[in-house]
Amino acid sequence: MEPEGERGREPQLGARTKTLPRGLQKPSPGEEQEGPVAGRDTRLRVVVRVRPLTCTETRRGDRQVVHSLGDSTVHVSAARHDATFGFSAVFDSGTSQEAVFEGSGMRQLVELAIDGFACTVFAFGQTGSGKTYTLMGPLVQSEAQPAAPCLLGLMQRSFACLLEQSRSRGAGLALSASYVEIYNEQVRDLLSPGPPCALPLRWSKSRGFYVENQLSVEFESLEAIADLLLEGSRRRRSSAHALNRHSSRSHALLTVHVHSRAPSACPSKQGTLCFVDLAGSERVKDTGSTGELSVEANNINRSLLALGHCISSLAKPRGKRTHIPYRDSKLTRLLARSLGGSGITLMVACISPSSRCLSETMSTLHYASRARRVTTRPVANRVSREKLLQTLEEEIQALQLENLSLRRQLCLPRLPARSTEAAPGTPARAGAGLGWGGLRQSSPEGQHPAAVGEGSVARASRRAPAWPSLYSVLRDFVVENERLRHGGSPALPGTRRSHELRADAQGSGGAALGGSWSPPAAQDPVSDDLSQGWGCLCQGGFGSMCRGQEGSCLGMPGPVPCAACSQSGNPTGNPGTLIPWAGQGLEACWRLPASCPAPLLLSRQPRPAPDLIGDVPASPSHRATRSSWSARGPRALLGHPARLLQPNGTPASSCWAPLLKLAPASGCPCCPGCPQCCPEPAGAIMSQVLPGPPTLQPVPAEGSASIPPPGQEDAALPCSHQLPGPPQPHQAKRRSQGRSRSSSQRHLLPRESRDQRGPERRTSPEGKVVPSAPPWPGLPEPRAAGAVPVLQWEEAPDWLAEQI
Ligand SMILES: Nc1ncnc2c1ncn2[C@@H]1O[C@H](COP(=O)(O)OP(=O)(O)OP(=O)(O)O)[C@@H](O)[C@H]1O
């Protein structure tokens, strides 16, 4: 039993709510603070909510044994239990939802999240004690019958508060949400449609424990986040048992990521607000759980026990703490930062007043009292622009090197340097790319990109706001990396155009994309080549996947089986593969038409707008991204999610949901690749994205080249907005390096390929020479002087390739 004296030691609520998001108060030495103080021990804030007796309990004649004494204390009076507990606040059964929001300090928590702190609120208690009610309000039966505004829970009120703050700061806050549940010790994404699948839990030094590949959805309105909450809650596992007709069978974690964009000189802040609705502890004999319900109950109780152990260990003074068993359950891993790290945490202990629940109530109150002794050391996550740029650049470099190595292993040709999107509000102009290409240009002559350090980043950041470009480049690399890791064709920049043309020719793709632009198919040689069964696209680099003869490539391994091919049964039993093409919501079957009865390109479902992407239901301002990929390799440097985007409305067949979507490479977010926004030679792109098959191609006639020779592939940059101009000295040097590297590049190709490297051109099936880079009016030939070279093969360190 909790001693009476416990009460006296509790500081008063008014004195404790010293939330200082900005000033960060200075405590007296050795003083332990309850209000968050950066870098100082700060107690968890624990409040108690007593729910009213339910109809069943009243009907049964249960006695009310829990009473709030009005001064943040709660009194339990029963035959063998008589105790008083003090907390930060106690809300009795008559307290409104709004009073709970205001009195619990939730509003301050929202402000702290905006200020860059990782804030967590979690509700715990016995099953049926009102945790979900406190966080989300009463169960919403349907969208047509929303809950009365006065009943909305802490979540909805916090969202409203956040959005209000966002509006008052102009375009200052970028908000996104992710929603996962831990069900039977498996982490599952509640925002991904389709059958639930387990997501891996990873650890990194910078981020601690995190869920890999969870979907993160941007939102800008209350309706949007309310939809997400509703959608996720519907997917969450719940069942009926004796104590609750809608009992949650999983722990749910909804995290809102708050990114405050600061004026250029100030650091930006990246806070989080995480709502954890724990599944309720339960006694199987009380709930009458059997079978699956009892398995769930065991898992719930086990993870709550692990949480209890962590809290007990953390409640000891710092010097006396030994090991904190965070790794005992997924729940404690995910809550590690909130409990003992640098976050700020509010715990809401929910209890039933019924005499029947007395022992569970006592256990919850003891648990809560112990939690009050737990301290964290809050640290705001502030990222200076310089630092963010540097981190982004490092990430891009690491990814580029890794992709180079992967391409090398897959015998794919290099890609040209990535173009970048212009920063919002910055008109796209030649040479103004601020991404990788821009940074490389600003690097000292001949310097390895990996050696481009803070200085060049700083230069880049001084020239213009660079991160929209860098993020765009990073996203491209991540998408490409994922494709390469799966052994499939990378999402190749620029290919979207050809496939849009193709779909347009079939009368479907253009419409799906809003299709305002439909250039003549004659300007798209690759599209023609694909449709007419031109050559093997994978250059024989895939072993058994490719028979290595013209027109007989059975496709690269890819994530989405082509329904038509797999159903019709092809001679080798190797189904065709639908490759999602960047930016277009299109899928291309790599099998050739002769053997694939499916259309070469399939358009996806029409989408309301090209930039409303993600596999979450279309809703105002939704934009879905997947969180960080894997902790392998030299990546995982950033604390932000990888931008693996999924097309809207496309059901994910697996947890990887491999239908990737890239924003158009042009500066215009809704541009499907029109010549106005993407003033690069379309054909030049095609010549670069097509893997050149040196051994398998018919030797073309003289006069045109489509496969650029080593050292020249880098000449044309898709959407890089270059203008023709005389070669700069460092560019001339680069070209000479390109020539000299050809010898070293040779060893990257299969011997057969090396021996039979033919002229750098190809022909269409009719024998007609297809120029690789048809001139686009007003723009340079792809290999014209002034183009920015890409990373050389030699520049990818061997050790990296070995590691990968
Ligand atoms: N403060 C409250 N006022 C009115 N009704 C409440 C209150 N708290 C809970 N209830 C009601 O009690 C029932 C159980 O609540 P809820 O589902 O939120 O419990 P829970 O703790 O989340 O249970 P579980 O752990 O099993 O999911 C619901 O019908 C809910 O509407």
UniProtKB/TrEMBL annotation:
Coarse class of the protein's main subcellular location: cytoplasm
Region Disordered, annotated ranges: 1-43, 418-459, 485-526, 612-634, 689-790
Biased composition (Low complexity): 422-431
Cellular location(s): Cytoplasm, Cytoskeleton
Residues binding ATP, per UniProt: 125-132
Limits of the Kinesin motor domain: 43-374
Pfam families given in the database record: Kinesin
PANTHER family listed in its UniProt record: CHROMOSOME-ASSOCIATED KINESIN KIF4A-RELATED, KINESIN-LIKE PROTEIN
Family: Belongs to the TRAFAC class myosin-kinesin ATPase superfamily. Kinesin family.
Protein name from the UniProt record: Kinesin-like protein
Organism: Apteryx mantelli (North Island brown kiwi)
